Here is the input.
Amino acid sequence: MDFLLWYEEGPVGLFIRESLWGYPIVLFSHAVGMATVMGVVVALNMRVLGFAKELSIPAFDNLFIVAWLGFFINLVSGLILFAGSSSTYVFQGSFQLKIGAILLGGTLMKFVLGAVRANKPAYIQKLLSIVCLLCWIVGVVTGRLMAYLA
Amino acid sequence: MFWEPFATWLESTWFHGVMIDIYWMFPLMETLHFLALIWLFGALLVVDGRVLGIVRFLNMKACMKFIPVAMIAFSFSFLTGLAFLHADPFNYLANPGFQWKMALIAIAGINALWFWLGEHKELLSLADGQQAPFRAKVIALISIVLWVFIIIMGRILPYTGGAG
Here is the structure.
């Protein structure tokens, strides 16, 4: 808690609360990063679920580099936004759910790719893929609704 | 302004009432707008990423299957966006951020049409791993850049409105 207050009252927190254009710029970066990460997650899971079967899954590799770039943008912009009122966010259910969903969704993405690579039965690949996609969707929905459930 | 009669009409519809009176309608539409935008951007990343050569070993013909996905996702973004417009037409239409966003979407539409009419057929014969022609790459790059700016405009338009 002390750490959160320190972070919130430090320069990052001050910047995001007081700079006129700081908040919108960080916010739109977060939106662009989200679209990038989620776009790749959605497209890849659609493929694993059987859409556009002619696409080779290993050939998606470079899109994952793009997705990681988006993820990095969101990690940085997210940490900056978090500084705005970190001591409040941590207790907010929608925030906790968001972070949990993203961590789980990210881990499951690894599992999905692992299952594809290991040639696990199709139902296992698809089941993992559906849960993974759902986690990420929960991440986006709870992220959006944080503004309303404060 | 020329759009004022349109805004007045939007405010007179029953749906305006729905958007105003039911408090969860706006957040619901926003959430759906976000999900649709993600689907749209993901589909574009596949198609444009292949054309640009970022994922050149993806089968071009199969990538094209994401074009209808993008179109369906765009329709959802459009409809949910229309819901926001119903809620507060005067402020949206007068907002420079909104006007820019609409202009960029129109340009992205023309760009997509150019892709479809001018490049689509030739690209279908591309072998896996083969680079697309330069012209097609330019279109794909314009598409991604435009959509990034459309997302940016959409996200900051609450801050670009004068009256608010």
Notes: The two ends of chain A are 19 Å apart (CA to CA). The interface with chain B takes residues 23-25, 27-28, 31-32, 34-36, 38-43, 46, 51-56, 58-63, 66, 137, 140-141, 144-145, 147-148 of chain A (CB under 8 Å). DSSP finds seven helices and no strands in chain A.
